[in-house]
């Protein structure tokens, strides 16, 4: 117990805090040993001294906050180390106490927990968004090492949300939005249902205060009006279960305000139309009784089709188990019922915290912890793939969606996926290599597009190929953070490698242009250049050149200067001789073909180095580059087609044809005979020519300019074709 002499400053200014601390040390922590409570008393005194003179915005001494956080944690029966860390969780950030000092006084584990909780706001970031993302990443990585970190963090956030009234409205909204987007879903994901619901309601209160007030008053009125109905339903449920020989505890539960508001928003309902604001919970002794109870209740009231869910056979990802059903109750009111055992109820209420609350000799709740650890390990994998903290946070937000679908592998294993997941998401969930090499998918033994969305009960099979690789278009439809992260990582790696190869070619061209008698550069020249340019490796410099972030001619000139080979003019050269980069058309993402002019082999071309896009190839007469010569002269690169190029290129063509039956068939047949592919076709009336004619706009695939000329010649010979032209510049296709 604490005496006034232990904390004299607090005794004088806030005796109520000492009373609360003594209650914490005696009543709230009664489940701990005496020596543990002495350890916590020492942690309280240390924290009070560290925060002495600091106040919350409400005017209370700051120590009242860590004490309240630790008190929340006692409801989950957390151990003395976690409670000490809660009491000390802000001392490193606010008081300059080091991790080493905490280790010496309270041990390594407490210091690690406090460090995992410590914010990193003192570091400089480009924006608040980056700071928040980095802070969140640090917390999740600490959480992966020790689950108690997230329990302390959630208790910290819960107390902050309960005491935000003294803050400015803009700060209230910012914290509430972050809570609703991140912390409430995490609480849901690890099974802390009560915390999840309270965080949602508190966030709703500060984000939409007027709506919260109106809805809360309406709910109080409805509570009085419906008390009689609820009592009648409760009696009916209890009588039916007793008549069926089942021992059961039946209770009513009111839905939280935010879930009611969300239902009104999603289904465009008024409050009076939301009938199921009450639910009922039935707790029985064992699993078989759960199924007997559902049968008995379905005999009492008719079930609503499609509303029965069996989370006992297939638990949720956070370990939650229950039977859910919705029945047509008296007066047409829908009744939502959850049926579960006492053990399931404990997990549903406390999730991963049930490991500490209900420890037993056989450690019966370790499966919940195991599932949470698996999720945290997937977060570690995500963060290693993500390029930065903001991208990592984006991936995590996707994976915190509460709704789940449950699908089967061909071998009958059940996988839990977020609602909206596609076949590609499933492939990455099975294994990264499966995702990277998938080419097709089957749902319930039928071939489907890879973008197909999965439904609970689907059996999914992925078809792979050894040389397949992720497609950038997958990013437009995948929903899981893991899939998005792996696709982006693969594409970044591939783009980096291709940019390095292009950078080598551009640098070689620059050397040939600047110095005809060039000698190979030694390692020491490159080392000197890397030091002065702040680049880490030669490959990084070459990739920057390929991506247009460094100019090849500037890098080449500096390398020649460092090697002693630079001369302002090469004697007898008659000026610089420009060499060309050869374009094969198969370079990948590092070289792009401009859409504005759609160059094809045979067209006179020029390259323009654009930042973050690499080398963009235009035709010489492209309207997009006319007039840029003086401004961007150093960004233009001489390029020429490789005569051996063997890929097909897209080219837009417009045909003016007679609006007659069979005209389109004749034209497409002629294109096929000329060995060209059709990518797309758009038809429209030629308004200036009258109803007798129409324009057909094709995107054709041809090998080169000669091939295109052959296609156009064969089309001109058709009687139904009056005019054909290749589209250029800003013309719409």
From TrEMBL:
* Keyword Transferase applies: no
What range(s) does the TGS domain occupy?
Answer: 403-464
Q: Provide the GO biological process annotations.
A: guanosine tetraphosphate metabolic process; nucleobase-containing small molecule interconversion; response to starvation
Q: Cellular component GO terms, alphabetically?
A: plasma membrane
List, alphabetically, the SMART domains matched.
Answer: HDc, RelA_SpoT
Q: Name one GO molecular function term.
A: guanosine-3',5'-bis(diphosphate) 3'-diphosphatase activity
Q: Which UniProt keywords apply?
A: Hydrolase
Instruction: Give a yes or no for keyword Secreted in this entry.
Output: no
HD domain ranges (all copies): 62-161
Pfam families from the xrefs? ACT_4, HD_4, RelA_AH_RIS, RelA_SpoT, TGS
**Domain ACT: residue ranges:** 652-729
Please report which protein family the annotation says this sequence is part of: Belongs to the relA/spoT family.
Q: What does this protein do?
A: In eubacteria ppGpp (guanosine 3'-diphosphate 5'-diphosphate) is a mediator of the stringent response that coordinates a variety of cellular activities in response to changes in nutritional abundance.
Can you name this protein?
Bifunctional (P)ppGpp synthase/hydrolase SpoT
Organism name: Amantichitinum ursilacus
């Amino acid at each position: 117990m604490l005496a006034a002499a232990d904390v004299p400053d607090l005794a004088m200014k806030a005796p109520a805090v000492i009373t609360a601390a003594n209650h914490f040390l005696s009543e709230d922590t009664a489940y701990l040993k005496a020596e543990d409570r002495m350890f916590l008393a020492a942690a309280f005194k240390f924290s009070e001294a560290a925060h002495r003179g600091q106040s919350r915005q409400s005017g209370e001494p700051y120590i009242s906050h860590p004490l309240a956080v630790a008190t929340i944690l006692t409801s989950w029966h957390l151990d003395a180390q976690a409670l000490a860390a809660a009491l000390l969780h802000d001392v490193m950030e606010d008081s300059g106490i080091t991790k080493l000092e905490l280790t010496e006084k309270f041990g390594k584990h407490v210091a690690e927990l406090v460090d995992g909780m410590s914010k990193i706001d003192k570091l400089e970031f480009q924006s608040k968004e980056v700071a928040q993302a980095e802070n969140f990443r640090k917390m999740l990585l600490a959480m992966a090492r020790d689950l108690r970190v997230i329990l302390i963090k959630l208790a910290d956030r819960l107390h902050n949300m309960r005491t935000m009234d003294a803050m400015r409205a803009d700060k209230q909204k910012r914290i509430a939005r972050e809570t609703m987007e991140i912390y409430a879903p995490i609480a849901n994901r690890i099974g802390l249902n009560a915390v999840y619901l309270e965080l949602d309601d508190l966030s709703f209160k500060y984000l939409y205060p007027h709506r919260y007030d109106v809805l809360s008053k309406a709910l109080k009125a409805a509570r009085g009006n419906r008390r009689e109905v609820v009592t009648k339903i409760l009696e009916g449920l209890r009588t039916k279960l007793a008549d069926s020989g089942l021992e059961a505890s039946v209770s009513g539960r009111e839905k939280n305000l935010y879930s009611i508001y969300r239902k009104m928003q999603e289904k465009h309902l008024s409050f009076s139309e939301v009938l199921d604001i009450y639910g009922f919970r039935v707790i029985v002794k064992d699993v078989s009784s759960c199924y007997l109870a559902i049968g008995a209740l379905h005999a009492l009231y008719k079930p609503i089709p499609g509303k029965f869910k069996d989370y006992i056979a297939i638990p949720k990802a956070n370990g939650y188990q229950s039977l859910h059903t919705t029945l047509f109750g008296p007066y047409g009111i829908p009744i939502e019922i959850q049926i579960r055992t006492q053990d399931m109820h404990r997990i549903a209420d406390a999730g991963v915290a049930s490991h500490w609350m209900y420890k037993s000799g056989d450690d019966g709740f370790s499966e919940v912890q195991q599932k949470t650890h698996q999720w945290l390990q997937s977060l570690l994998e995500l963060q290693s793939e993500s390029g930065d903290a903001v991208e990592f946070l984006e991936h995590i937000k996707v994976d915190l969606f509460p709704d789940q679908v449950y699908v089967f592998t061909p071998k009958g294993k059940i996988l839990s996926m977020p609602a909206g997941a596609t076949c590609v998401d499933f492939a990455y969930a099975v294994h990264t290599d499966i995702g990277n090499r998938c080419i097709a998918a089957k749902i319930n033994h039928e071939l489907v597009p890879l973008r197909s969305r999965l439904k609970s009960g689907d059996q999914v099979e992925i078809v792979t190929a050894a040389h397949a690789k992720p497609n950038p278009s997958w990013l437009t439809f995948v929903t899981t953070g893991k899939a998005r992260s792996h696709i982006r990582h693969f594409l970044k790696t591939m783009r980096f490698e291709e940019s390095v190869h292009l950078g080598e070619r551009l640098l070689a061209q620059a050397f040939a242009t600047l110095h005809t008698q060039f000698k190979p550069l030694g390692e020491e020249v490159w080392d000197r250049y890397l030091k002065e340019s702040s680049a880490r490796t030669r490959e990084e410099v070459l990739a920057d050149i390929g991506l247009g972030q460094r100019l090849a001619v500037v890098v080449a000139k500096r390398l020649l200067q460092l090697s002693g080979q630079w001369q302002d003019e090469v004697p007898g050269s008659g000026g610089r001789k420009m060499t060309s980069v050869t374009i094969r058309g198969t370079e990948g993402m590092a070289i792009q073909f401009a859409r504005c002019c759609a160059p094809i082999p045979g067209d006179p071309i020029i390259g323009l180095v654009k930042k973050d896009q690499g080398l963009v190839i235009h035709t010489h007469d492209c309207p997009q580059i006319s007039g840029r010569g003086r401004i961007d002269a150093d960004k233009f690169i001489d390029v020429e087609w490789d005569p051996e190029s063997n890929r097909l290129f897209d080219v837009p063509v417009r045909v003016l044809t007679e609006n007659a039956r069979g005209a389109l068939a004749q034209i497409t047949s002629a294109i096929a005979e000329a060995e060209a592919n059709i990518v797309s076709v758009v038809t429209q009336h030629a308004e200036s020519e009258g109803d007798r004619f129409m324009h057909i706009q094709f995107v054709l695939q041809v090998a080169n300019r000669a091939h295109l000329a052959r296609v156009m010649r064969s089309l001109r010979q058709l009687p139904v074709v009056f005019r054909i032209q290749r589209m250029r510049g800003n013309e719409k296709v």
